[in-house]
Amino acid sequence: MPFSVRQATYCRIGRPGIRFMAILLCNVFSRPSRSSAPAAALLAITLPLAGCSFDLGSWGSNNDRPPVVQKPGGNAAEQGARDAQGHTARGQELARSGRASEALAEFDRALALDPYNVPALYGRGLIHQGEKRHQQAIEDFTAANGLKPQQVEPLLARATSYLALDKAREAASDLDEAVQADPNNAQAWTARGLAYERIGEKVTASASYGRALTLRPKDEAARSGLARNGG
After folding, report:
1. Which domains does the chain have, with CATH numbers?
2. DSSP character for 15?
3. Beta-sheet strand order (sheet of 52-53)
């Protein structure tokens, strides 16, 4: 299912006061699960998990990008980095308006000019994820996480693709790191509960769902997950 305007909604993730455009990736979890209850839970939390933002706030800037090596007689590399930022901004706007293929082309142009452009890597990863190209999404999220480690957004996004590929242990590892980076992120705790439920570790799953409910009492996915795991 391609992106569409109907799939877009606003939500708040992580930092208070920053409003994010969330793209609902309703087709992320199309693969069958081992049992009907976890499959239903996966569908239920698709919206908050895959509703990732193309606007990354302060962590998604390129201020920490490796320094450009200056060559005598010009600043072509610096100009290329600036041009890359322009392509990234256009890609983000196109993605928010549901024009995924055009956005992907802009992110590709940005990364051809500046391979260290974290927002372009993250944005391209979200588009790959929305089109069910999960391995490509994982590669982009991994690159973004390597440039800006210990940030919830790429870890949560990568875990979402891992879950879609039935790689629950890899997802759990990412989500362990995500909840350490931001212990107050209810989405990360809900996703962690699902990952550990998939692995079969009910105690850890129950604790994760319980933590999510403490942070977000109306989280129905966490509530049903807690009930399934004896909480």
Report:
1. 5-61+76-228 (1.25.40.10)
2. S
3. 8-11, 20-23, 52-53
Residue 140 to residue 10: CA distance in whole angstroms: 24
**61-65 long-range Cβ contacts below 8 angstroms, 24+ apart:** 61/118, 61/119, 62/114, 62/116, 62/117, 62/118, 62/119, 64/147, 64/148, 65/114, 65/116, 65/117, 65/118, 65/147
Distance CA 101, CA 128 (A): 10
Q: How many residues does the chain have?
A: 231
Q: Three-class SS of residue 53?
A: strand
- Report the chain (231 residues): mean pLDDT per 10 consecutive residues: 32 30 32 43 39 50 47 62 91 92 96 94 95 96 94 94 96 97 95 96 96 96 93 70
Beta bridge partners of 22: 9, 53
Spatial CA neighbour of 121 closest among 170, 163, 65: 65
If DSSP codes are grouped into helix, strand and coil, which group holds residue 156? helix
